[in-house]
Amino acid sequence: MWALVWIGLAAAATPFAVAQSNAPAPNNAAPQNSAPAQTKGTAQAPFLRVEWEFDSARGTYQNACGRVYNDRDQPARHVMLVFDGYDGDGKKVSSRFGEVVGDVPPRGSAIFCLLVKSGGAKYQVSVPGVEWGYSGGQ
């Protein structure tokens, strides 16, 4: 079953800037932390697992696409996802939410893509809400 994510209207929690320089560092300069930004991850919630990966950035945003896996014998409905971005100091710099469109089938998975603010050094994904069971049938 294919599913899409409804893109929420949450804005970045606080503004931030990323400065880059292509100039080489002087020989006497202290080494800089050049750890790459996080490009994929996994998150666990009761009976659900979210695996995601970033596409290349387009402007100040990038697509976080992946799968939500359901470990229960009931469908997961209205699965909400939140992507929080953090800078190198651990300060939250962005937050974006979305809902997986459609059900995540029992013992199955559904795909999603969510437009997320780029520039964070680390991202944390959570599942703040899910409904379990079958729909009313109409």
How would you characterize this protein structure?
The protein is an all-beta fold and 138 residues long. It has a domain at 5-12 and 38-123: Immunoglobulin-like, CATH 2.60.40. It has no helices and eight strands. The protein has a four-stranded antiparallel sheet, with no helix packed on it. Strands 2-3-4-7 form a four-stranded antiparallel sheet, with no helix packed on it. A hairpin with a 6-residue loop joins strand 3 (48-54) and strand 4. The chain is elongated and about 45 Å long.
CATH-defined architecture of the domain at 5-12 and 38-123: Sandwich
Mean pLDDT: 78
Helical/strand content category? mainly beta
Distance between the termini: 19 Å
Task: Describe the oligomeric state of these chains in a short phrase.
Answer: single chain
The number of helices is 0
Q: The biggest beta sheet, please?
A: 4 strands, antiparallel
How do the SSEs run, as a string of H and E?
EEEEEEEE
| Share in helix | under 10%
| CATH class categorisation of the domain at 5-12 and 38-123 | Mainly Beta
The largest sheet has its strands arranged as: 1-6-5-8
pLDDT below 50 for ≥5 consecutive residues: which ranges?
1-34
Q: Beta-strand percentage? A: over 45%
How many strands appear in the DSSP assignment?
Answer: 8
Alpha-carbon Rg, integer: 18 Å
What name does the CATH topology of the domain at 5-12 and 38-123 carry?
Answer: Immunoglobulin-like
Principal-axes geometry comes out as elongated
